[in-house]
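Protocol step 6 of 9: fold each sequence in the batch and record its structure tokens directly after the sequence line. For illustration, a two-sequence batch is reproduced in full.

Sequence one:
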Amino acid sequence: MASEEELFASVDALLNEEPQLPPPAERARLREAAGITQARLATALKTTTQSVKNWENGRSEPKSPRLDAYQRLLNGWAAKYPARGAALAVTPAAASSETAASQVETADAPQALAVPATRPARPVTRPAAASRRPPAKKAAAPALDPRFPHGPLAVLDGDGSAYGTGGVVLDCPATTVVELVEWTLRESGLGAPKLNRYGKDSDPLIVLTAAAAVKLGLPERLEGHEQRRSLRLPEDHPVVKQVAKAKWQLTQRGFGPWARIYRKAQGRERQCVQLAILSWDALDERSWPGVTEMEPAGIARVLGVYAQRVITPRGSTAVSGLELMTAMRPPTKPERDEETGNWISSYNPGSLGTEPMDPAPPEATPEHPVVVRSGWTGGFLNEEAYQWVRSVDTLSDEECLLPFAVGLDLNTAFLAAAARLVVGLSAPDHFHHVKFNPKIPGSWLADLSPIELDPRLPSPFTPDGTRPTGPAWYQTHTLAYAQELGHDVHPIEAYLRRETGAYLDPWHDRLKTAYVDTLADLGVTKDLDDRAFLVAMERHKQTDPALAAVLAAVKATVKGGVGKLRERPQGRHYKEGERWPALERATWRPDIRAAVISKARVNMHRKLTNMAKMTGLYPLAVLSDCVVYPSPGASPLDFLPYAASGKPQPGGFRLGPTPGLAKLEGVQPMLWAIDLMEQGLNPARHIKGGDAVLDEGE
């Protein structure tokens, strides 16, 4: 560590040099040479600030030479080496909101660290009024990270305007993809901080409109005979060659609708930019309804709120759901090696680690190498969501005479099932004639066919609701529910995991908060009574279409993320028994997917059973998280169970805005539902109008 005199001499020498920003590596060397550590800076900031406050209040005057010296050091350092993006010219329109946010972040910082008023040759920000569309109503503003003053992403239009979050509009001079990448990393001030102390910052996202894509030399549409999501530019395309010539790299998925362009990280600084091309169908209409039709500022708002509440999009909502799992539970953490004293990367407890793990044969898919190479013929887990239609022969005359069929939909049922869900973290071990333990996650071979259940309810043991016909593989929650119903469970064999943990808990917590907060912004709050809740849900999509799109994306992130845990091979050229790319990641875990879906299906059956006990009503059909009941009226209030006090009875379906509670899915005449049932069709699929999609992200 340099002495105090050497420290200030070094800083004086630096301040007398020609002012220019050295490269990151040189900055690090200079800081080390000057002996400036985070601890000393923090102490200086705190002490100096208190001294200034005391002086302003007339209690004392800051006369300490040490404080003066530190203040002089900080003044010069801040003026000469502003934080990334700090020197960007900010217009008065944008400055007020940014200043207010920065005051919250840096309330203890001295005035000496104010951003200098120097303007670059070409200003990169414009007032929000320059947008062709007035800035829309904003959701809650994210906390400002000084490294990323302009938020996580921007939508680039053909005129060089990059629309960021909070109404910011940046001037982007790039005319090629390479220039765009370099501008994004060096000048844009885009990015997002990590979600976990051991994680990584989110790379900046640039969304290209059709006009911007053409301007950068890309085709307006990406056409071909393959599935659109697997399309990409050929390797001999000029833009791909341009990227390679500039020493940038593309990931294995190439230059498609979601392209990642990167260089190997230098130290802690990542060099990676994500591109999303709207006209190449980067934003699926089912997950992002109406977003591609919005103006760039509106698209930036939708994606910005999603990035703030969930994660900066990395691809489809299914991909983002999987990435969020890793971001919330990073696989590694730094640890000091006791022998060498160096910091090394070590396993982060509670995570899935970095190495892929082969499943047990019954947990795999038929084309998986574990199955093909071993010749496994012992059957597979069949833990899927309900697709059940009740037999019309079981309908009573009273039920047939009820006028309405009312559909209830459980809010993010898979997310509710993920709460406090214990899953396996280690490789499976094989056991024979093992005693069942409901606390151990795994796959069990057992015969549940002798169990007799009410035919007016679906079997809780099979996705189609039919009675099992013999021994089959079940996830722990399914067998535990059989035990809960009072039946003896005697597994024949099992694949169990010794290391366990609630891996999905932080993922669940973040998505639950995103879902509830977005619904609240749309006027659907927890304090509403059931009648007011139904009214609010009926019009919430019209309240703010942008936030309604965010809500749809959050729901798609849940289902898609769970589905990605067992991503199947894609493409016409795949051969059974070959490994496919998804198998190389630690998050290819079909056993965790089975645990979530098993628990969700068991939760559904438990509510169906309780409803029958409390009301005498039995469902007509179930599709995943939607159930259809015969009803004397056109509202759920006409058949849901309530206590004499007016409060909902626990155990059955309850209305509300949180995961696991229900909302109205749709209403149709009872004769309509019976007609579909006689044809073998599922009323739950069509009760909303149209065709419901059972989307599990595969």
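Sequence two, same batch, same settings:
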Amino acid sequence: MVDRGASALSLPDDWPARPDPILALNRMGSFDWDLDTGLFHMDAQAHEVFDLRPDEYDGNPMSLGVRIPRVEAHRLDALVAQAIKDGSENYGTYFRLRCRDGSLRWTHTQGYIRRDETGRPRRIIGILRDATQEVDELEASKEQAAQDEARRRQTNVVQLTTAALAHARTVQDVIDVLKDTHGLTHLGATSLVMGLVEAGRIRLIAEGPAGSFVPGTDITRIDEPYPMSEAVRTLSPRFIESPEEFADRYPILWPHITGLKITSAAYLPLIAEARPIGAMGLLYSDRYGFTPEDRNVLIALGSSIAQSLQRAMLYEQEKDLATGLQQAMLPRTIPSVPGADVAVRYRAASGEGALARDIGGDWYDLIPLPGGRVGAVIGDVQGHDTHAAAVMGQLRIVLRAYAAEGHTPATVMARASVFLHELDTDRFATCLYAEADLATGVVQVVRAGHIDPLVRHADGSCRRVTVDGGLPLGLSAEFGQLEYPVTTLELDPGGTLLLCTDGLVEEPGADLDDGMQTLTHLIAAGPPDVWELADRLIDVAEERGGDDDVALLLLRRRGLDAPQSGGRLQQHVAPGDPEALTEARHMIRAAVGAWGARERSDEIELVADELITNALMHTEGSAIVTLRVMTRSDRRMRVEVEDSSSALPRRREAGESGVSGRGLLLVDLLSDVWGVEARGGGKCVWCEFVVGERT
């Protein structure tokens, strides 16, 4: 309390012979306490403060006991004694007096201790005043400060809750924010209930604490006699200020919640765009009633929650629509492929920057092909919207059609690029297409601006396969660069080919190569089962979050007990491309060995190399080499080299100094049979090799 008497005390040593008139003017009484005689002298104003007439007081301090309650007297005596003992010069305190009518009022006293030259206390002179108004003002100020602090605290909770709700994306996020220890519990609520309006009913979506669920209230009609139903029906909050009021107004509900010791409750309608979308109830066990400020704060809170809840509901609706559309664009089922285990996964973006309506252009596909082959596709259309999804769906269809027509991987990619360019869209797409012969393990890969594939070997080691690529689909046709180099690799039995979109690799602020290295280590440490590995990779992507979708395709070659007939491989060899010629040789060697004809691999490779070289030297275009196993009574391997020239090859003897002319002699000598077929504007030179009896 503020001491208002210290500045007014300026009493002379010979007081009370000459009392200070200033004290009387300020309605302050004065006293002079002679410690030697024990007499306690008071002036007329002091008598008024003590509500005593002069004839009712004899100068003995003990006589004041009629006005000073015993507890207050003990406290005053202790205060004065301590001041004298400590050597203090003054003291001051508030105490209560009992007036003539029996009422209590606050009084303030301040005394100055006068000591002699030895330090011994001889007198105490001081003042008295009625402090009733002062104490009332102080108490009112304290109460106002407490109310302001409570209001500030409640407002702060509303602000913090509103800020937290701004990040809530789903209905469950909203519930989690409200149940969080930094949420509504700071408002003193013991329990929270919330329901959503659905088809004329209220469906309970949150209740607490555990064990507080009321049977039969998970779904209730709006016209039923429950407080949430009433709040929704009337669009007005319901404040219940006592247990008696609760029991009287809602006799059906009250018996089920008496164990929660509820003393008051607030049920708020959740209104968005002038219609009720739900209701929320806050139940208290330590408060009675609600001030106008409390009600305003809670109503404001209900409005904020309603807006967040509506956003969350719209987000979930849009997300369901986007997910449904995305799933409709992806293959509904993945075909079973003999000789391989295949796992595919798709994860929609979920980072802070992703919106519910964002539909990714990521896709995967698996295309069964003749001869025990299979085509695996992974791709990503630029953008995250319905346009991207529509382009993705069309690209997936045309890639499947081109592959099924029997085109080489490079041709499949080139035609898809032309198709996308002719769609007259502003989108481009990255894509990777791998055509695998599961009998031989030979995989031909073409890449259009996409990230490289990875291969995990049977021993668990994993490596990134560097694939020479071309421009993304759509851009390559626009710039007239339709060449897509083919990279050939071998997938041993037990080996797994992994194709994915960059959402599985890229992280904000991280280098792509670092991401690929991290993914490589993750795959190497993952389970051997492709389905379990796919789940592990998607779980990692889910934990990391991110604003990009993830598409994933894993193909594990099981290996076959016996070579299959009907196998077919094809390679495009462009003129002036020595790497393509090398890859064709590599494909032939691997296929011949895998098809059980290793004893004739040198002959077959030499003849094929001769035919390819002749086609590149004597024609202006590219050559297409095809290797297949013929299904006859005896097992034959057939090599075909197709070019765009209609001129038929001629077999002739080479001169002593000639460098050409021996090619067809070599073909005739090493192959069992050969010939030439017209193919549209070009021709096909073929030869066959008997590689053993059919099993």
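Proceed to step 7 once all outputs are recorded. Observation for sequence two: Residues 488 and 586 are 8 Å apart (CA to CA).
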